[in-house]
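Exam revision sheet. Question 4 asks you to relate a sequence to its structure. Input first:
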Amino acid sequence: MTLRRASIAAALAVLMLYGGLIVSLAWFLDGATLGKTLMSERTLFSVNLSLLAATMSTALALLLAIPAAYALSRFTFRGKEAVDTVLEFPIIVSPAALGEFGATLMVAGTMAFRTETLPIAIFMRLSSADIKGTVALILVLVSIGLMALFFARRLLRSAAHA
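Answer key, structure tokens:
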């Protein structure tokens, strides 16, 4: 087996594994629960808050990250090593410790209709043993993530061909 075929086989195996995990969520669902959970005011609030937080953090990151990356790649200045070290800190520390879920949970707590982003909503439903609601929200989160990746790749592809 060539390296090309082996790497393609590995990629397809990973796709099948993740696809199988997503499809297996259907075991815990029924259509009524899915519809009820997806259309509930609480779920819609969680989705909107998550999208707002992601949009604001992305905008803030772009405002700071692009000029910082430019400065770090082009110039020598006092404190450059310190800035570079601090910017690499999230790579070292677990994403759960610095991520949106952990920060919200630790600082703001879990309050329905206040701090309930999608990851917090999933945590709260799982904590109350609402497995069907948890699975429905996981599907919402996975769907939003996959759509975001799909559209980002399309934008990058169209920008590369322009």
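Marking note for examiners. The chain has a mean pLDDT of 85.
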